[in-house]
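Quick note —
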Amino acid sequence: MTSRADDIRLGADIGGTFTDIALDVRGEMFSTKVLTNYAAPEQAML
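Predicted structure written out below.
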């Protein structure tokens, strides 16, 4: 089965202490919270 780009949505909210990440894959939701790293904010998504 293949995925279309509109089947997957990813969001991130970089906050003062935590970065919240949410992933929606065809209606199934996943989320996590990690410490914010201001020197390398992309690390939250990796």
